[in-house]
C-alpha cells in the first residue's frame, strides 16, 4: 500500500476504498473442493483397483459461528457461480485490510482537537490529613 503524506489524500483514499467495497457484487467466503467416493455395490467400477471412484463431487465449505458447513454444488454452473462469489469475497478482504491500514495512518497524523476538561479532571486531589502509620 502506498504511503500518503497528507491527511486529505488519506481521507480521499479511504473514500475510494469505501466506494470500491460498495461496488462489489455477491460474495461469500469459503473454498471449493472435489471429493470422490465408493458406493456399496461390490461389483461397481469404483471398487476396482486404481479406480478413483465416483465423482468428483464438488463441495463448498465455509464457517458459520465457528462451525464448518459443507454444501453440495450440483453442477458446474453452480461451481462457477460459487467461484465468482469467493473471488469477490477475497477482493473484500484485501480492500478491508487496506481500509484499516489507511484509517490507522489517518488516526496517527490527525491533530488532536483541543478538548475541554471534564469536571472530574479539573478537580485536584487533596492530600490526606491523616497521619501515616509507617514510622
Helix fraction, binned, reads 40-55%
Q: Helix and strand string, N-terminal first?
A: HEEEHH
**Uncertain stretches:** none
Number of separate helices: 3
Strand order of the largest sheet: 1-2-3
Shape: elongated
Strand content: 15-25%
Distance between the termini: 62 Å
Strand tally is: 3
Quick check: average pLDDT? 88
Structural class: alpha+beta
From the alpha-carbon coordinates, what is the Rg to the nearest angstrom? 29 Å
Description:
The protein contains three helices and three strands; from the N terminus they run αβββαα. Strand 2 (54-64) and strand 3 form a beta hairpin. The protein has a domain at 7-37 and 53-110. By secondary structure, it is an alpha+beta fold. The longest helix has 34 residues, at 76-109. The mean pLDDT is 88.
Task: Label this structure with key terms.
135 residues; 3 strands; alpha+beta; elongated; 40% helix; 3 helices; three-stranded antiparallel β-sheet
What does the secondary structure layout of this molecule look like, with pairings?
Elements: H1 7-22, E1 31-37, E2 54-64, E3 67-73, H2 76-109, H3 119-122
Antiparallel strand pairs: 1-2, 2-3
Helix pairs in contact: 1-2
Quick structural summary:
The protein has 3 helices and 3 strands; from the N terminus they run αβββαα. By secondary structure, it is an alpha+beta fold. Strand 2 (54-64) and strand 3 form a beta hairpin.
